[in-house]
Design goal:
With about 280 residues, the protein is of the alpha/beta class. The protein has 12 helices and 12 strands. The protein binds ligand C2E and calcium ion (3 copies). The site of ligand C2E has 22 residues, from strand 4 and strand 8. It comes from Kineosporia corallincola.
Length: about 280
């Protein structure tokens, strides 16, 4: 893997094993462009379970591609391709609009529900992202505070200043912001304190081996303390066992996600799942 700096001082990665000009790759790019108009993309929803009360007030939208020949593709198989080819803005717009339309239907029976949408590094550095978000909110009538945008720490490292401007614009309008995959990047503490964040999300890599790894436990404990000192909610993802859930509760996390509760579910199933948990 080579990492190169372009004139826009953005990092670009070229993968030798996946030849950039292979016919396969070119075909995928063309198909991805059509996938949006052909309605081949799907959203699955992963609940965020509040701690310690176990309520669900937010679900995270996760995109999939129902490919005509290759079956259901996970985002790792095509989101990077969308980022590299400039299709990411269309994808982000589709995800935002679809998730908010769905939320507006759910909110007729559950008006406390909100939705989280992942914003890719590249979209985060586009100054027109806020307008795209505001358009989707206006179209669907969802209040800004019922939308949480999950921004990876890497997106902030790429262009701190521009990402900061985009975040201020969104936050100023009432949209909530989460720093995703926290712990993987190198955001300085002073920068973190300046950002208009509502939530820190601890990546699964620190959570999954917590019980065996004192180092991972120390990292999770530090992030929880840091988040709480900055008045942020702290959410841990990748919870697969009751033991890890208990350990996270001991450390005082505000929310958890993971296969211990459920994998991401299609829209048709997630409300039944939430309903079955509510006493
Ligand atoms: P992420 O935002 O960190 O999302 C969490 C990923 O971990 C999801 O995988 C989720 O299904 C998985 N996960 C959650 N709990 C567990 C668990 O207990 N065990 C295990 N093994 N996995 C768990 P998924 O859906 O494959 O998404 C992968 C990544 O793709 C996401 O990571 C996110 O960075 C990206 N992504 C997904 N949807 C979108 C989207 O609409 N737009 C953008 N830009 N990126 C997206
Ligand atoms: Ca996420
Ligand atoms: Ca991620
Ligand atoms: Ca993650």
């Amino acid at each position: 893997l080579h990492v190169a700096k372009t004139s826009h001082s953005k990092l670009v990665c070229y993968d030798d094993e996946q030849n950039n000009y292979s016919p396969d790759r070119l075909a995928m790019i063309g198909q991805l462009r059509d996938a949006i108009t052909n309605e081949e993309l799907r959203l699955h929803y992963l609940p965020k379970v509040d701690q310690p009360d176990g309520h669900v007030t937010c679900v995270e939208a996760l995109v999939r591609w129902q490919h005509p020949d290759r079956g259901l593709l996970s985002p790792d198989q095509f989101v990077p391709l969308a980022e590299q080819t400039g299709l990411i803005d269309d994808l982000t717009r589709w995800v935002l609009t679809t998730a908010l339309r769905q939320l507006s239907v759910w909110r007729r029976v559950r008006d406390d529900l909100s939705v989280a949408v992942n914003i890719s590094e590249r979209s985060m550095n586009h100054l027109d992202l806020p307008q795209m978000v505001f358009d989707a909110l206006t179209e669907t009538g969802v209040p800004p505070a019922s939308l949480l945008l999950e921004i990876t720490e890497a997106a902030l490292v790429a262009d701190q200043e521009r990402a900061g401007v985009v975040m201020q614009h969104l936050s100023g309008a009432g949209v909530r912001l989460s720093l995703d995959d926290f712990g993987e990047g190198f955001t300085s503490l002073s920068h973190l304190a300046e950002l208009p964040l509502n939530e820190l999300k601890i990546d699964r890599i620190f959570v999954k081996d917590m019980l065996e790894s004192p180092n991972d436990t120390a990292i999770v404990r530090s992030v929880v303390e840091l988040g709480h000192n900055l008045n942020l909610e702290v959410v841990a993802e990748g919870v697969e066992t009751a033991e890890i859930l208990a350990a996270l509760n001991e450390l005082g996390v505000n929310g958890v996600q993971g296969y211990f509760f459920t994998p991401p579910l299609p829209a048709t199933e997630i409300m039944d799942w939430i309903g079955a948990r509510t006493p």
